[in-house]
Amino acid sequence: MRTAEFDYHLPEELIAQAARPRGTSRLLVLRRETGAVSLDRVSSLPALLAAGDLLLLNDVKVIPARLRARRPGGGEAELLLVRPLGGADWEVMARPAKRLHAGVALALAAGHAIPRERLADGTWRVEFSPPLDEAALAAVGEVPLPPYIHREHGPSAADRERYQTVYARAGRAVAAPTAGLHFTPELLDVLAGRGVETARLTLHVGPGTFKPVQADDPREHRLDPEDYEVSPAAAVALNGALGAGRRIVCVGTTSCRALEHALATGGGRVLPGAGRADLFIWPGYTFRGTGALLTNFHLPRSTLLMLVSALAGRERVLAAYELAVRERFAFYSFGDAMLVV
Q1: In whole angstroms, what is the distance from residue 33 CA to residue 25 CA?
Q2: How many angstroms separate the CA atoms of 252 and 295, rounded?
Q3: What is the per-residue DSSP string for 308-321?
Q4: pTM for the complete prediction?
């Protein structure tokens, strides 16, 4: 298996710069057993799913994780929060990282960021003054839109609302679980009325979701672990569905990876509590719980495309992507969706 086998050509104009209204996106349906593909709309999900299916959502909340700072000499710096380290400290990706110096404070829109030490993987441990509680973060941070979404003057208020699922509850994601961006409360109600059960877990999506696979052999790639929590109620719902042979429909690769990691570490059962998902899923992987997957279209050579290929087969997935390009689907975070059943 080579990384180059997961490449495809995507015209730049198909990278969505703005999202369609929730619930109106186009949907490509890929059936794993036959490879058959059909074109539909996200609004058709109630007809495409079955009574008794369990829809697994990642209810994490995206935080305004991108901070613009100024160095003492006047130069600009950009900080992207990765995860809290306790107290006022966070692990941070910095740009330009080489211009940061331990103990030399950076000025934020309100307060300061003080680099303390360079960490092993090139990130920094940074102390924030004042500490980044919800109010402080709202004052200094902005929506961490992916680098392929361009905003000349930075993210807008509309971006802050749209780059968040309607069921976001809590957490500290620095990237949205984008498959969930398609849902409206009304669509979820219709699914519930059709007998589709819903369960929620929380996986704190990190910047590693955009980390490219640079090794020729993807098995040499280091996947950044991401923290997740499963509530007792979610564990009961998931184990009940698995025990009854009902299909679990994962909304997004984040829900899928958390579920599969939980089953791997729980001996085939989902245990309530916290975990760190470091499971890299590529073709040849045997899924323990995922019966179907709703997901957006992913970057070439990415770990996310490899996960989808593990579920549906590399050749079939790439053929579906080629069709999506021909049909002018919108790609990536603000783009259209794909349902693998």
Answers
A1: 25
A2: 5
A3: HHHHH-HHHHHHHH
A4: 0.94
